[in-house]
Design a protein that fits this description.
- Helices cover about 55% and strands about 10% of the residues.
- The protein is built from 31 helices and 19 strands.
Length: about 800
Amino acid sequence: MASMFAKSSGAPAGVMQPSQPPQIERYEPEEEKPKQPKKVSFAQFDPDAQMQMNSMFMSPMMKELEAQIKVNTDMLDRMNKQMEDERKARLKEKQTAHIPEALKGGLNKLQILDTHSKAALTGHSLAAYVSTLDEDNLKKFTSKITQDCQLWLSRLFRFPDSSPFYHEEHKDGLVKICRMALYQKYPKYPVEGFEALYSRPPVIYISSAAMPGLSNYLCLQLGLPLSSICNVPCSTVNGTTSIMDVGMLEKLIQDDVSAAKTPVLLVGFAGSPHLGSVDHLDELRKICKNHKIWLHVEGNNLALLATVSIPNSVEPATSGDSMTLRLGKWIGIPGLPFITLYKSSDPALELAAGLSTFNPQLKLNCLPLWIVLQSLGHDGIVDRIKHCCNLAEKMHEILEKIPTIQKIGEEKKEESEAKTIKEMIFVAIDALFVFKMASPTIVFKYVEDNSTGAVEIAPYSPVSPQEDIEEKDKLKTYYNALNTWLCDTLFYENSSVDIELIDVENEGSCIKFSPLDTAQVKGTVIEDIEKFGENLKKQIAILDATVLQRDRFCAVVEAQDNLRIVEMPSWAGLGVVQYMPEEWRERMTDLPDNAKRDINNINTELVKRLHSKDTAFSLGFNDENIGCVKFGLITDDTDLEELIGLVYSVGKEIEESSKFLEKLSEKVQKGIEEANKELHKEMDEKLMQEGLLRQVPLVSSLLNWWSPPPKDSVKGRTFSLSSGTMASTEKTYKYHMQIQEDDAPPPSSPSPSHPVNTYKEVLKPVKSQTKSAGAVKANLTEQFNSPSSSTQEKENSNPSSPQPEQKSMETQSKDKQHPPDLK
């Protein structure tokens, strides 16, 4: 302890003086001073104060720190889990690269089934199991099942005294009904065949709003010519395009009767396949009754017959002769067959037409339907149909509030104001007793905003009618593209609301929403429709901003010298432009091939650079397959001048860089040609120096052995991109490195007798020197013993190092053997 303090006081090591202990005691309090705060500790004497301090300061800090650590830990865990999942996905993809995509699974997810759907699927298995019963019990079982289904369906859809026919193909029910109608009109048709139809050919009337291919399918299945099908046009008086024209139908029937033809059947729609329009079924029923024509009705609106309040437009369907129901689609139960209800009093005709059978196993195809009808009950079926109608009603409300959305297929009726008391009474009665419901099938499209007033063309305008028609076609194509984009965007953003893009005659591309077909399968609810409406308003705002700025966009682009508008109506965006270089700016048509290539390269590079800044830019090609810049959709706050200025500036930069590359390529081409000429010249000189004998294969080897030829003097050429000059590669191959010489001449030129010695002095380390192990050891020993000796003395004392005089003599001898080539 004493020696330690002695060392700390500055005393020499190893020296101890007997008179120093009092000094040691004097330094002890100084060493004890840092320990005084430890003796006076507030926490040691007051534990409550320590707890209070911890609760006031330490506990909140620790809790906050713990919470922050937990957040960071959770974030790291999520990142690790995501990275691990990605790693596993990559590994799995690598391991299953040889497996076809269809066998990997996960492409199509199956629908999650509820208890009623599971019961329907169980019914199929049960039907197969019940078919193993003995014949008597099987007949009793099938008779019970079919009678229950017949009674329940006829009561549910208010179609009394009807018989059901179950089929898997939607069109098979109409085929069987047509065949039975033919048997009624032509009793000898089952025996005589077509000869019974020859004298008075049959005619089947189908609305032009039917699905394409229906006429051909009926003729193929019934063995009739296409002349037996009459397509009735639709009326366009009230703004719709899918309601059958009753007046035209009456005229066609009279013409066929006058031409000795027999009207057999009429197909009407309570909800057309595309637009969901309902024909005037009450008038069609009267026409069919007068001419003894079979009336068959199809459509999704027939589902409303099961509700408590039936719309007046659909109610006449119950007075028809047959109807086809898609109950499985309407209530969202898979595996249920299509149902065709028909009224007939002749079982023999039913059996001949294939509408009934005696085979009990075939009758069991209604067993899943029998189970579902009991499982859901009347209230369950009605609730599901009402839910679809409520979704459609909510969608109607949303679309009504958007001025640029036009609903297609709705019949527009002008409501006249009641002026007399009699008219007011009729209006009141109509409101009380006529029940109207919005169509469960909605078709709409985005149109131009006409609320501010459409621009009308003056009668003295120079625009010709043909140009006006072309302009309208371009505008229609453009809005078709916008509706296509709108449908795709809404479909991906709202997975629970199933919409599809359809092409309507005279209307173009439209968006269709049919909840009776998709709502139960997708599980669509009112909240999904509200979310769909919010997304629709956002996308409509983008479309409105884009359409509003199109004319201004064209004006700004035309003000730029190097930009031009490219007509591309099918592009759903702001527009399409093309950057034209200065060389071809004045010449817009009849461009040569090199001009097309230059313009295409510039615009392709322009899109690549713009896309890295904004993904709204994309590459397109005009009619001549030349690249151009496509502008995407914009918002209200987009600055057009800045956007177009960016395209112009980047295009100008690319054009200037391309000009520099062209000049550089020309310079390189000239340098290559010059180098080839010099190399050919040197080869000719070499041939003249060596002589003709050295070119003969056998003689050249003997001559080269006897008299070795001089060193090859033909060298390559290097081209400097910075200076544009050409130099020989002789120094590069000689010194095994590139030597860059200054353009300015050296202050003093080397002696002509030693032309290469200057480079050898500069590049001294190029030639490697070898030493033996003993020499290296002796050299190191000498350096250790005499550290003050100079480096030059070491080199002179080393016997293995060559002397400068010897080195210069070797250089002179080499120069004498190979004198430099002087040209």
